[in-house]
């Protein structure tokens, strides 16, 4: 029986004109995440080969299956993407393996699968980071046990790779325009620690620039974690007010972290 | 779906224990590569790389085609990978496994997106004719560290490759056979190499219980099956990172990633020198008696 | 690749071997393992079902079955608990061309294990089929021309081994370094087809490195 089916809208936010270290308050990346399961692992796994899977807890726990759908209207050029786009498949794998590090899969049997379906409704930079945050938040909301939030953030560097000037400033949370112009990386950490779960950098950048970018991204991750935590706590409060859960129950579960 | 045979529990326990104490099955140091060998074919653009028991064959071909309409001034450059069932029971024909998708994406990011090959130089007539360079990569034997070996093979093959010389006179484009004019090398901008670090959890060092990540370079297949996460760093010898990918897995301290990246630079310089040396040897071998010098002198316009 | 012609009888004698005495075996070093009755093999338990363990002997082949009661002193109430990934040393009891092979860990005539059964700890190495065969010979030094194990033993290393005809060798010792040295010595002998003198030299080198 499905544990919970929940829907979340996550808008990663910011109108430009912000300072280098400001997260967007209302950006144009919009992602919807739906968690289904855990279900019994279906024998016809091969038919849904568009999803990427990763076992949790060294194969002894539930499997995470991540599938990403990018809506054709999500980008400016409105190009339809094939299901087997390797870039999307790579992102799926990164998300599945990344979340597998945080999810306590042994709470479920080894033959169960949690499906994470991500729909990208609007795309404006930091796509992978947004997807990871959305999936993480949705898993928390669905009540899947996790060690901590898996949070992600992008960081870039002003001036392109060719210029070896040391004065280049790091930037946090890039939008599409910035992503096309500047070198950037996506960093996913486990909660507020400095532990790197996933890191993806696809542009040419000087090695010396890496440290600054990673530090900036790690700060962004901390901010993102606080933000996600705030969202979860607000929702918890709301549920208590509405009487969906008894007060004591919430307090005990919230005290855990 | 056929699966790779899982290593037995005994193997898992033993290897993890050995790695924690700093030993590897083949007696290598933790950051040591296996015996690396690179052979070029009789034709231009064939490279055969062996790294321990891993063997990879790449072939580069070129043909004249029509450029993409949205990129009229660029040539076409594609890398295709094929992991045949011969190399491992986990691979199937016509169904790309996750390994294959990640491998081809990494090569794409490392070699293509980093502009190692100047695609503008492949343009012959803007919007009408251009060269299409295609790299075919075949994994003949899989014993771990496919990524590093494949990247080396692709770079070596492309640098070894010579495309037929061409000339434009008015509206006519002439492509010369190797007999008419000596083929010309591709316009190559920089040589990126991948270095993959495999992580095996942490050990505590010292009495204050400080945790230290354990990592290995150039893992064999068995070691690869047991790692908890991996991180591939692509770089050229000038210290420019072309791509970093750590696709999930167990978390690793940020400091470790930075340490790995500086070590990667050192290893990339070694690999770069290795390829340079092999290319020099090959051209010397081909240029016996100074025949090439004679031909190219005649053709200089 | 090298070919060997081996005259019988070198197989471990058992009741099922009668009638194979005057055969000539042509063995190559490559190819995959094809089970034959009486072969000693090392398998990895894949999973267990009601009455059988399914055991992987080699890549690209289907699993062999090992009845849960084919162990020494096994009964319905007292049977060995093997889990996925455990190693087991067994004898092939049934090998038909188009059927999955069947294994046993007990001698059907005496009811004793005779050294067969689960292998705990240690390390499993893959060796070529030819090497496995040479190691399993009665007089492996004279006929098989492998002296590495004898040399390692006389160099003062204490270890135990089990060789499977499916190209596997299991090595165990109290000292981890000993296992590593034994493994390297055998695999290197195998891969480089070392002669007797070279094997002795290799062992001396490895033992020196270890100390």
Automatic annotation (TrEMBL), chain A:
InterPro entries: ExoRNase_PH_dom1, ExoRNase_PH_dom2, ExoRNase_PH_dom2_sf, PNPase/RNase_PH_dom_sf, Ribosomal_Su5_D2-typ_SF, RNase_PH. Pfam families: RNase_PH, RNase_PH_C. Keywords: Membrane, Transmembrane, Transmembrane helix. The chain crosses the membrane at residues 57-76. Belongs to the RNase PH family. It comes from Apiospora phragmitis. SUPFAM superfamilies: Ribonuclease PH domain 2-like, Ribosomal protein S5 domain 2-like. Residues 25-145, 152-219 form the Exoribonuclease phosphorolytic domain. Residues 45-57 have a biased composition (Low complexity). It comes from the Eukaryota. Residues 37-57 are annotated as: Disordered. This is Uncharacterized protein.
Automatic annotation (TrEMBL), chain B:
It is found in: Cytoplasm; Nucleus. Keywords: Cytoplasm, Nucleus, RNA-binding. Its main location: cytoplasm. Residues 32-164, 192-266 form the Exoribonuclease phosphorolytic domain. Gene3D superfamilies: GHMP Kinase, N-terminal domain. PANTHER family: EXOSOME COMPLEX COMPONENT RRP45, EXOSOME COMPLEX EXONUCLEASE RIBOSOMAL RNA PROCESSING PROTEIN. Belongs to the RNase PH family. This is Uncharacterized protein. It comes from Apiospora phragmitis.
TrEMBL record, chain C:
SUPFAM superfamilies: Eukaryotic type KH-domain (KH-domain type I), Nucleic acid-binding proteins. It is found in: Cytoplasm; Nucleus, Nucleolus. The keyword Cytoplasm applies. Residues 122-175 form the K Homology domain. CDD domains: KH-I_Rrp40 (cd22526), S1_Rrp40 (cd05790). It comes from the Eukaryota. The keyword rRNA processing applies. Keywords: Cytoplasm, Exosome, Nucleus, RNA-binding, rRNA processing. Belongs to the RRP40 family. PANTHER family: EXOSOME COMPLEX COMPONENT RRP40, PNAS-3 RELATED. This is Ribosomal RNA-processing protein 40.
């Amino acid at each position: 029986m499905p544990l919970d089916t929940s829907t979340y809208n996550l808008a990663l936010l910011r109108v430009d004109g912000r300072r280098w270290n400001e997260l967007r308050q209302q950006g144009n990346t919009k992602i919807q995440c739906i968690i289904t399961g855990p279900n019994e692992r279906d024998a016809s796994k091969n038919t849904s080969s568009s999803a990427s899977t990763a076992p949790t807890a060294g194969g002894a726990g539930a499997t995470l299956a991540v599938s990403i759908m990018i809506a054709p209207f999500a980008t400016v050029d409105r190009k339809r993407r094939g299901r087997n786009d390797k870039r999307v498949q790579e992102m799926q794998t990164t998300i599945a393996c990344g979340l597998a590090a945080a999810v306590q899969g042994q709470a479920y049997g080894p033959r169960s699968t949690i499906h994470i379906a991500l729909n990208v409704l609007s795309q404006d930079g930091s796509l992978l980071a947004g997807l990871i945050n959305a999936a993480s938040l949705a898993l928390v909301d669905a009540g899947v046990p996790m060690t901590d939030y898996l949070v992600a953030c992008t960081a870039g560097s002003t001036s392109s790779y060719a210029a070896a000037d040391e004065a280049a400033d790091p930037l946090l949370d890039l939008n599409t325009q910035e992503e096309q112009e500047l070198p950037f990386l996506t960093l996913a950490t486990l909660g507020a620690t400095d532990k790197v779960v996933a890191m993806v950098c696809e542009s040419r950048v000087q090695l010396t620039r890496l440290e600054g970018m990673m530090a900036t991204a790690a700060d962004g991750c901390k901010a993102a974690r606080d933000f996600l935590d705030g969202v979860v706590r607000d929702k918890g409060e709301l549920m208590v007010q509405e009487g969906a859960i008894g007060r004591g129950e919430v307090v005990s579960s919230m005290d855990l972290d | 779906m056929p699966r790779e045979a899982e290593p037995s529990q005994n193997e898992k326990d033993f290897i993890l224990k050995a790695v924690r104490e700093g030993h590897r099955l083949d007696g290598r140091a933790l950051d040591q590569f296996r015996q690396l060998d690179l052979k070029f074919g009789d034709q231009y653009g064939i490279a055969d790389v062996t790294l321990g028991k891993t063997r990879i064959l790449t072939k580069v071909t070129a043909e004249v085609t029509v450029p993409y309409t949205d990129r009229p001034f660029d040539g076409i450059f594609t890398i295709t990978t094929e992991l045949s069932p011969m190399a491992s029971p986990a691979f199937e024909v016509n169904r790309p496994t996750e390994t294959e998708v990640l491998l081809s994406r990494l090569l794409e990011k490392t070699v293509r997106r980093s502009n190692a090959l100047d695609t503008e130089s492949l343009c012959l007539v803007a919007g009408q004719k251009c060269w299409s360079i295609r790299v075919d990569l075949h994994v003949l034997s899989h014993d771990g560290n496919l990524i590093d070996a494949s990247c080396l093979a692709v770079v070596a093959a492309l640098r070894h490759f010579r495309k037929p010389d061409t000339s434009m006179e008015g509206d006519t484009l002439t492509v010369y056979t190797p007999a008419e004019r000596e083929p010309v090398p591709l316009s190559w901008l920089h040589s990126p190499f991948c270095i993959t670090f495999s992580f095996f959890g942490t050990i505590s060092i010292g009495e204050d219980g400080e945790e230290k990540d354990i990592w290995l370079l150039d893992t064999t297949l068995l070691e690869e099956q047991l790692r908890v996460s991996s991180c591939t760093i692509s770089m050229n010898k000038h210290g420019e990172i072309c791509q970093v990918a750590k696709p999930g897995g167990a978390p690793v301290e940020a400091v470790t990633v930075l340490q790995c990246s500086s070590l990667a630079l050192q290893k990339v310089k070694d690999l770069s020198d290795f390829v340079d040396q092999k290319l020099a040897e090959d051209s010397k071998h081909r240029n016996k008696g100074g025949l090439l010098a004679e031909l190219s002198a005649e053709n200089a316009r | 690749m090298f070919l060997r012609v081996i005259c019988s009888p070198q197989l471990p004698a058992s009741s099922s071997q009668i009638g194979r005495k005057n055969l000539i075996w042509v063995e190559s070093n490559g190819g995959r393992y094809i089970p034959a009755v009486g072969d000693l093999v090392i398998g990895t338990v894949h999973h267990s079902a009601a009455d059988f363990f399914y055991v992987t002997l080699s890549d690209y082949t289907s699993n062999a079955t090992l009845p849960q009661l084919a162990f020494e002193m096994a009964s319905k109430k007292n049977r060995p608990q093997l889990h996925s990934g455990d190693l087991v040393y067994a004898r092939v009891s049934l090998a038909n061309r188009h059927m999955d092979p069947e294994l046993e860990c007990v001698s059907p005539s005496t009811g004793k294990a005779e050294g067969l059964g689960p292998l705990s700890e240690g390390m499993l190495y893959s060796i070529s089929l030819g090497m496995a065969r040479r190691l399993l010979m009665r007089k492996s030094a004279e006929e098989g021309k492998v002296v590495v194990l004898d040399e390692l033993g006389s160099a003062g290393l204490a270890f135990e081994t089990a060789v499977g005809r499916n190209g596997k060798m299991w090595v165990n010792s109290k000292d981890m370094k000993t296992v590593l040295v034994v493994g390297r010595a055998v695999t290197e002998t195998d891969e480089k087809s070392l002669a007797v003198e070279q094997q002795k030299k290799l062992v001396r080198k490895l033992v020196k490195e270890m100390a």
